[in-house]
């Protein structure tokens, strides 16, 4: 069993080669076939060799000669049943004589075969073998000269049906220079219209072919003309195909596609032509109208390039880059002509989509060549976004998407250039971020003392700011277009918070950006208030204590809670979004923010009972206070216990010292005087050793107490009032009578030395 594999998304990437399916090879690089009624497929190859290899496999499965361009057409059961009801001669699809009197018969025949893939194939072969198309077009000219409307209506049906046969070999004839205008003429006479359309008049008189740079290649010029006219037939003349006809024109789409590929390839190979285009595009002496045409040419040129195979598209954009497309765009986007700038934006979008890294590499080199940040390419893009005159900001939305692609770290991870992310983000925040945020900062500037408008909310007076500045209510933009622009900027800044962490954090702190953004919570445009809230939500979502301290210190929950209270009992998106923010803080148990909210705003929020969010925050707050109280109590209890143990330990030292003295006295009395010197020497040695040994607890274990104990930390040292006489050395023998090993002696002796120092204080 053999399969055909494809990367196409229109089918399941794999098609079984059936011995009963009719396959046809077209144009040396195309194999077409049908797998179901009204469902045609095509397999396109970049090179002829690949097409020939697959064609041989197909012919091998079906037992056919590979030199044939079409395999034999087997007839399935449904076809046999239909054919049994028809005269035997109809199996051969014999064409009626091409005469005026038989146009209706020809139209009925063409229409009848459209439902059968096999009969469509047979009719196409018949039309090609007899040169039938050109004969029909001759009849069209005759009917038009005679104003034979009935014949013209039949010719409309015939030509439309022939197009729906979906055969590239027929298209080659119909769209040739000497036939295409007659084909367009036939399609003007739709029987459903009272008066025919004037498509030929539009194509020959209204639509003008403009050569921005003279094209000397006649083949290229002919291919451009043909592609435009065929595209016009598909988009304008032919009616929108129904569900059952949607696959009838797939080959027509492929025909246009391959034409565009040829055009791009031929232009790309003509380096002299492209060099001349770039030279005139950037020449200050070029007239505005001429420059507009050049930019529109490049725009369409780049649009055609999307039809290229990936490797060919890469070569195309690399050619443009080598010719200086980005410096040219930098000049064009700085011009006053709105149409030129709009076309330049489209070209820029193709370049960003192709290779963001290529664009980033170019813009990072610009500061070395220009002293003014305003002329940098990215800043020109930002300014064009800000100054978009479209009330719906369609261009601004497009540019915002391009900026997000450029600053997205996800496409900066190329292993060949690991420093790209760091270098570009540093460049962007140094040279471009101030341009992006300028409208936001300008529209949220606070008015100075003596001029501000007071909004008095006694339950929300901030304890963190001077009283005279807590009541400033900055003026919010009420203009809808300005609000839309600020929403776009906030969307981009929110993206930065999510993906840039370090750079955006520094920028927010240095510019106090969150405070300025939250001014927009007062906007009458709810969508803008939601954008400001979303920005804060993303910051809190990071659960970064650095951000949390910034929010607490600036009392930045106040505008959010004001907005919640001002919203009243309205159950809307703003209400839900604010509630979700506090719910997140509660669920994630962000302790610093919970304490701040409860300490400063709970009285204003405790009346909100339709959700349990704020009572939950209060509960979390109380739990944390209880936990801290229990921890402090245990800490103090442990410290007192430690002091008691030390007191007992030092008291035991005194008892042992007195007992030792009594034993030594008895030994001196009972032993002869000759042993006196020995005992004296022994006492001196024991005294030296005991200086370096710890004391014993009543359980015969050794207690290690350090100078930074809990008691010392609290300033309570139970040994500090001991008399100096109580600091007598302890016995080196444990309760079991065994001598301590050397390691224990050294360690315990050192510790005991610390204790003696504490005891003697």
From TrEMBL:
<feature type="compositionally biased region" description="Low complexity">
    <location>
        <begin position="709"/>
        <end position="737"/>
    </location>
</feature>
<feature type="domain" description="PP4R3 EVH1-like">
    <location>
        <begin position="16"/>
        <end position="62"/>
    </location>
</feature>
<dbReference type="GO" id="GO:0072542">
    <property type="term" value="F:protein phosphatase activator activity"/>
</dbReference>
<dbReference type="InterPro" id="IPR006887">
    <property type="entry name" value="P4R3-like_central_dom"/>
</dbReference>
<dbReference type="GO" id="GO:0030289">
    <property type="term" value="C:protein phosphatase 4 complex"/>
</dbReference>
<dbReference type="InterPro" id="IPR051137">
    <property type="entry name" value="PP4R3-like"/>
</dbReference>
<dbReference type="Pfam" id="PF22972">
    <property type="entry name" value="EVH1_PP4R3"/>
</dbReference>
<protein>
    <submittedName>
        <fullName>Protein phosphatase 4 regulatory subunit 3C</fullName>
    </submittedName>
</protein>
<dbReference type="InterPro" id="IPR011993">
    <property type="entry name" value="PH-like_dom_sf"/>
</dbReference>
<dbReference type="Pfam" id="PF04802">
    <property type="entry name" value="PP4R3"/>
</dbReference>
<feature type="compositionally biased region" description="Basic and acidic residues">
    <location>
        <begin position="683"/>
        <end position="694"/>
    </location>
</feature>
<feature type="compositionally biased region" description="Acidic residues">
    <location>
        <begin position="646"/>
        <end position="661"/>
    </location>
</feature>
<feature type="region of interest" description="Disordered">
    <location>
        <begin position="646"/>
        <end position="761"/>
    </location>
</feature>
<feature type="compositionally biased region" description="Polar residues">
    <location>
        <begin position="698"/>
        <end position="708"/>
    </location>
</feature>
<dbReference type="GO" id="GO:0006974">
    <property type="term" value="P:DNA damage response"/>
</dbReference>
<feature type="domain" description="Serine/threonine-protein phosphatase 4 regulatory subunit 3-like central">
    <location>
        <begin position="105"/>
        <end position="623"/>
    </location>
</feature>
<dbReference type="InterPro" id="IPR055236">
    <property type="entry name" value="EVH1_PP4R3"/>
</dbReference>
<feature type="compositionally biased region" description="Polar residues">
    <location>
        <begin position="738"/>
        <end position="750"/>
    </location>
</feature>
<comment type="similarity">
    <text>Belongs to the SMEK family.</text>
</comment>
<dbReference type="InterPro" id="IPR016024">
    <property type="entry name" value="ARM-type_fold"/>
</dbReference>
<dbReference type="GO" id="GO:0005654">
    <property type="term" value="C:nucleoplasm"/>
</dbReference>
